[in-house]
Amino acid sequence: MxxxxxxxxxxxxIALLATKKFLTKSQIFNAVAGYEGSPEAADRMFERDKDxxxxxxxxxxxxxxxxxxxxxxxxxxxxxxxxFNLGELTSEEVSLLALASQTWxxxxxxxxxxxxxxxxESLGINSDFSELPLAPVISSVPENLAEILDAIExxxxxxxxxxxxxxxxxxxxxxxxxxxSQKSRWYLFARxxxxxxxxxxxxxxxxxxxxxxxxxxxxxSVTLPTSHFPNIETLVNIRRDNxxxxxxxxxxxxxxxxxxxxxIQFESIDVAVAQILRYTPNxxxxxxxxxxxxxxxxLNELVRLHG
Amino acid sequence: xxxxxxxxxLIDLVPYISNHQGIxxxxxxxxxxxxxxxxxxxxxxxxxxxxxxQTPLELMEFQFEDGFVTVRNAEELKSPRSLTQTEIxxxxxxxQVLESKGSGTALRLKEKLTKQLSGAISYQPSPSDLHxxxxxxxxxxxxxxxxxxxxxxxxxxxxxxxxxxxxxxxxSYCKVAQDRRTFNVxxxxxxxxxxxxxxxxxxxPSESNRFEATIKTHRxxxxxRETFRTNETIxxxxxxxxxxxxxxxxxxxxxxxxxxxxxxSVRAKAGxxxxxx
Lengths: 307, 277
Fold this sequence. Notes:
heterodimer; A: alpha+beta; Arc Repressor Mutant, subunit A; 4-stranded antiparallel β-sheet; 27% strand; B: alpha+beta; 4 domains; 5-stranded antiparallel β-sheet; 12 strands
């Protein structure tokens, strides 16, 4: 029964925390009620219990305790590793951490946020949790974010279904390396096991559940792709009193009664073309030629389609 | 995330009560986000737990009095457990958002936590992260908001923010349109909370109409779906927005409704004529 299991797990935690020396499995099975059945069954139960505790961040240390033979292992939980420990924290820092966890409120990570916040409140460092200012909110959190974080943490190969450009599913087995966001989009940075190539996968393009395998991979230090800085400069005319959002980021060169001549940086040719098309005919692109030709090609296509 | 939320709660209850002796069960239920009955069951289970041997001396000691709880003899579990990797990652992201608002302490804490994380994580705070709390502030104080949306400035009286398909929407009264308007928060380009406070006129007609348009996708099906959330019949509030998106899609999609086709065609032709000069 689930409640018996949880009782056993709490007792196991207490026993392994309280012990000064490493306990053997048989000592544990004697001391903690609930390890029943054959020795093999009890062993399996113990292995599962270790995993469950690990998923809560509770590490069980293992050590060979027989001076002559390696096969007798001892177990304990080191209190200093069990305890919430971020070094000395001031009450201001505790409040700030609580505020940081609250940015996840009402998102897919809200349980994580709640649990963190409760433990911060349990530190006994005086902070007034009822007086926290309004936290900013992480505005777009994909449903599968917690799942992805778990996958990165476990260093195991995962299988995903990824939607390609034509919205068809491609199956991929990847090594999850890191997670980042840019412009409100979340990306999983991973290595494709098929060809060893590293690339980013947008989380909202991963279709359906993520399948974990048991295959472990080695994670070296990961460098996430650096942010996409603007890498294309365009010369445009913007019709006066229009498109303030682009004028905000523009470097104005000259203006007359009708047009403002300016330079605008975009992160890619695709983005430049899309933005210029979106605000047509209140914007005209003059340079570079590549963007001009993409835009005119698209406008011709739009006219052809829509008559 | 914890696969066994009950176990997490059992373990976290002990330090929480230790630091809030005499707390009421209903406050605990509220804090832990479960029903009072759940907390009561948890406390009964914990009541039975303790050091091996489990003589009364070794058990944790809970006292319930008129719905208030105290705990003693809980040395081992008195400190809260350490952060998991997922929790560290979540905190780093939260601190990155606070740092973008200029908190130096957030930066220091973030660096401290990053050392404890095995994977890599990075978050670029988006303007809407900050917009949402500003909008909430304006809603509470009845302040007018000045926003730039789809290239136009508007002054609006905000009512509420709601979520749909992972996007945040602002429901408001637009002083320019003199009608209710809904805005996608992610598309608000600039936002300013004005000092003036105002309430929307009572006689405002109901929510402005949603329109429908049928489209045909020619290529780049993923981009079309991500723009319109569908590949068939689009629901939209603003014709301006719809026409802009169809133009931006550069012919990957065709609109079938005659009125909209005419508008798209007019704008595309006007655009083309500028390049032929």
